[in-house]
Amino acid sequence: MCRHLACLGPEEPLGRLLVEPEHSLYRQSWAPRRQRYGTVNADGFGVGWYAPADPQPARYRRAGPIWADQSFADLARVVRTGALLAAVRDATLAGADAEAAAAPFAAGRWLFSHNGAIPGWPRSVASLVPLVPPADLLSMEARTDSAFVWALALNRLRSGTAPGPALAETVRQVAGAAPDARLNLLLTDGETIAATTWGDSLFYLSEPGHRTVVASEPYDDDPRWREVPDRTLLTASRAGVALGPVENAVEKPVEDPAPSPTPGSVRAGAPTFPKEPCT
Questions:
Q1: Alpha-helix runs per DSSP H in the chain
Q2: What domains are there in the chain, each with its CATH number?
Q3: pLDDT given at position 90
Q4: Backbone angles phi, psi at 262, to 5 degrees
């Protein structure tokens, strides 16, 4: 129950994507056009971005609505990046864990967001707890369904699974335990993007070789936006976008994984793109 966006492209101010467009993520916090659940995303927001020559992203997160934060207005005007992930939040339980519950979640070079909800949380997914190492479970940033979904996905990334299959298997696991869960997941390492659709909207805008944007809904009326079908795994880079069924995504390790991977050493596997990038 939120809106989120990831972008890989030329270096530009955060506000160019998040504030200035007519239907930007900033505006989606109070007037989303495609949101199926909830109406106002005022329970926190966050943005994570990558600086040149630094693989670990910076984050700015707050518990209140994005429109009420004057510091963010200044930040968005002057901070420049070529890769980001941002989200505005409509919490299942308003105020739960405050800023710590606002996406993006982070570990090492990864940024992650979950648009959706797990009905019956936490009991409905209690059977999945053994899949998360105890230390990771105890160090979750927040006691929310989104933070738990991130812990599941991160454990797969740490084991060497490529980002797309890691998200797909996480969705399959959670949906198996909680069949009515909504699981639109979004992940980036600053070079690639992986995302799933499972119960809510997702779109992408691809300018091969220049910019790729993946978002809950378009931030403008550019006719090149394409909607992603439900239950789809999306993998992308600046070169293009590839789509496939979540159910058919095969779990596979990244190429040449680092020994004993840690959050800072896990690297993204290269997504497989069609010969002609989607536009």
A1: 14-18, 25-28, 70-78, 134-138, 145-158, 163-177
A2: 2-248 (3.60.20.10)
A3: 87
A4: -125, 170
**pTM for the structure as a whole:** 0.89
- pLDDT band (50, 70, 90) for residue 259: very low
Q: Hey, which bits of 166-239 come out as E strands?
A: 182-188, 193-197, 203-207, 211-215, 226-227, 232-237
3-state secondary structure of 23: coil
Active site residues: 2
| pLDDT for the residue 254 | 59
Residues 6+ apart with CB under 8 A from 187: 110, 111, 112, 113, 153, 163, 166, 167, 193, 194, 195
Cβ–Cβ under 8 Å, residues 11 and 81: yes
**Which pair of structure tokens corresponds to residue 70?**
């004057």
Each residue of 174-193: pLDDT tens digit? Answer: 999 999 999 999 999 999 99
